[in-house]
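Page 47, continued from p. 46.
Same chain as before, 152 aa.
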Amino acid sequence: MQDNERLSGQNRLIDDFGAYFESIGFQPIAGRIIGLLSVSDREELSFDDIINRLKISKGSASVVLRRLVAECRVAVVESGRRHYYKLNQQNLFELLDEFERMCDSVRYLLNTTIDLKTDKESSNAKYFNQIINTIDRYKTNMATMRQAVQTI
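Result:
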């Protein structure tokens, strides 16, 4: 793959990270920073590297980076007077736990919605039950996979 193709692919992926983060309630800039730190050939980037590559304001970058550091998604590495940022490589199970908590919240909302409906056989209720069943299967499979990984 040519460098310009790779760079173009990286930029698309960075934007995809931004769109994903926005879809789960975060600022798109936070996702784009995570995407950049994920796909960059250098694993530690300076503040200037980040704002120049993403073409974002210093103020926006500063606010979002502080939040990402506070949430332990990004780590700060100090080198002399300069700060560098890198992904905080969380334990895989911490990330999965976070995802499972989101699934549990969705499951609760859908279950409560069904409970409060008069017609529990309505099209929406059936659809919500399919989602709940999918979440339950995911959690069962994830528990099995966790046990397999922990025994290795």
